[in-house]
């Protein structure tokens, strides 16, 4: 997140609309600041090597694939993801987006995934993830050697497709084999009933502007404001044996406008390697509307053996990402002001031990519902109870400002805002679930 966004998010004295603008203006995305930039090659002969466990920045041209290289052993699963960030305020084709594939040295596909903008055709960050998996179910891609990650646009020639190059954030994650052989089939029974949405008073928590700066959430009711064209990122620690569910609510508009925008709110769930799990779209006519993700299984290593992509994606513990996007078309009928958004997050089930790996994942904490996330969630809950002033201070702490000067600037702005307050006198819709991908690996996002 940029320094300005960190300092403004949750600051006392700022109207809700300004908070929302600071946390997700069109075209803004909080890239990993430590990520080096690499250039995708037009030929695999020139492909630059990606180290597993690293994050990189790159550029995706409007037409044609770009290639990157991996050097892999014969024991680990390796996940490669690409988050595509189109420029804000532009146009988009419905089935345009980003396509990622992993291929072996003979050009054979190990896996492919495509993420698209979906029915609203509103440009926003989308992520796709492909895997080189060592599995008895797969006859290819088991050997050590050179592999290639290929990234391209899903439909660059579609109606309304953007002619611009897009920014990319690339990540690679290595998962070692389990120390002992386990189940080779997915769990046959799990609680697939739709749970009741979490009730209670909503607590404010401003969303982040990228995967790296996603705001931690725990079970509870969380409130934010989202403007048309904005995308907000949250992450929820989900441990082994735990089950996740969320309901999103768009509240009534105060603009007095009329109309209807199908799939106005797009809410996507991604797993710890940025693999797509599920999504729900909520249509909007200016009145309050809601939508829930379809029931998901508890987190289990054996889920990867399931034929259903939603079940298979719930294959490891860690931070699961909620990405909320409000279509730009909402502004046409209801103005560009913020729309209140509530997320009702439920994490249920009995915690279990995960598999014992025969090595360390890279990054080492990627499959852990880490203490830092849980502490940040707890901080947010306490801030919600304490009020706006404490929320501002928590936002500074959680935002991870790394320099003393930045902290002093933030404290100064907070103090000025507080003094100004002291000196001032008185003062149902259409919804759908993305479901499994089709035979080409496509989904709407």
Automatic annotation (TrEMBL):
UniProt superkingdom: Bacteria
Listed transmembrane segments: 395-417
Q: Where is this region: Disordered?
A: 175-195, 421-445
For the keyword Membrane, the answer is yes
Q: Which UniProt keywords apply?
A: Membrane, Transmembrane, Transmembrane helix
- Residue ranges, compositional bias (Basic and acidic residues): 435-445
What is the name of this protein?
A: Peptidase
Q: Which organism is it from?
A: Streptomyces hirsutus
């Amino acid at each position: 997140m940029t320094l300005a966004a960190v300092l403004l998010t949750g600051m006392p004295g700022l109207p809700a609309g300004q908070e929302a603008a600071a946390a997700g203006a069109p075209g803004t995305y909080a890239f990993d600041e430590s990520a080096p930039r690499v250039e995708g090659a037009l030929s695999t002969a020139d492909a630059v090597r990606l180290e597993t466990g690293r994050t990189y920045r790159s550029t995706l041209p409007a037409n044609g694939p770009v290639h990157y290289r991996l050097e892999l052993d014969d024991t680990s699963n390796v996940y490669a993801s690409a988050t595509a960030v189109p420029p804000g305020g532009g146009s988009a084709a419905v089935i345009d987006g980003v396509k990622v594939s992993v291929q072996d040295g003979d050009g054979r596909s190990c896996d492919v995934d495509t993420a698209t903008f979906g029915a609203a055709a509103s440009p926003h960050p989308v992520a796709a993830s492909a895997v080189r998996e060592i599995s008895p179910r797969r006859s290819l891609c088991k050997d050590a050697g050179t592999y290639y990650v290929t990234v391209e646009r899903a439909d660059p020639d579609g109606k309304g497709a953007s002619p611009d190059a897009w920014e990319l954030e690339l990540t690679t994650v290595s998962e070692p084999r389990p120390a002992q052989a386990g189940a080779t089939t997915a769990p046959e029974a799990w609680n697939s009933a739709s749970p009741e949405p979490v009730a209670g008073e909503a607590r404010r928590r401003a969303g982040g502007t990228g995967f790296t700066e996603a705001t931690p959430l725990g079970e509870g009711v969380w409130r934010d404001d989202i403007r048309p064209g904005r995308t907000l990122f949250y992450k929820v620690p989900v441990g082994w044996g735990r089950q996740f569910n969320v309901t999103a609510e768009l509240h009534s508009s105060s603009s007095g406008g009329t109309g209807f925008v199908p799939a106005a709110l797009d809410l996507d769930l991604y797993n710890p390697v940025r693999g797509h799990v599920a999504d729900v779209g909520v249509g909007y006519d200016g009145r309050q509307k809601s939508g829930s993700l379809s029931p998901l299984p508890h987190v289990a290593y054996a889920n990867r053996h399931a034929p259903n992509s939603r079940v298979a994606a719930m294959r490891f513990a860690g931070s699961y990402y909620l990405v909320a996007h409000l279509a730009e078309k909402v502004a046409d009928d209801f103005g560009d002001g913020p729309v209140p958004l509530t997320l009702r997050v439920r994490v249920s089930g009995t915690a279990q031990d995960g598999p014992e790996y025969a090595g360390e994942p890279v990054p080492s904490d990627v499959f852990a519902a880490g203490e830092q996330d849980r502490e940040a969630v707890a901080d947010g809950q306490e801030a919600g109870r304490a009020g706006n002033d404490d929320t501002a201070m928590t936002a500074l702490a959680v935002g991870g400002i790394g320099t003393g000067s930045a902290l002093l600037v933030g404290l100064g702005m907070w103090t000025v805002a507080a003094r100004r307050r002291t000196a001032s006198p008185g003062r149902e819709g259409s919804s759908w679930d993305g479901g499994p991908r089709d035979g080409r690996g496509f989904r709407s996002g």
